[in-house]
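re: ur question from earlier - yeah i can do the single chain one, its not a big deal. heres the input i used so u can compare w yours
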Amino acid sequence: MSQGKKGKLNYRCPCCFNRDIDIDLFFDEDKKEYYCLRCNYVGTEEDILRRYEEHKSKYKLMSSRIDKFED
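and the output i got, formated as tokens:
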């Protein structure tokens, strides 16, 4: 799902995203939290960004070929 450059950024649920499911999070104005309708994830923007970084670190070498393994 692509997203344009204009407007507010839609965050994807980090728990569902780790299972290759693309679900947008909803924002609760009163609690200042994001939540997922599918898996009941609730978190702040900082928590979402931290989980995105963890997800990126798992797949950072996916597009490169590894020929040597160091001991």
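Helices lie at 14-18, 45-58. not sure if urs matches, ping me
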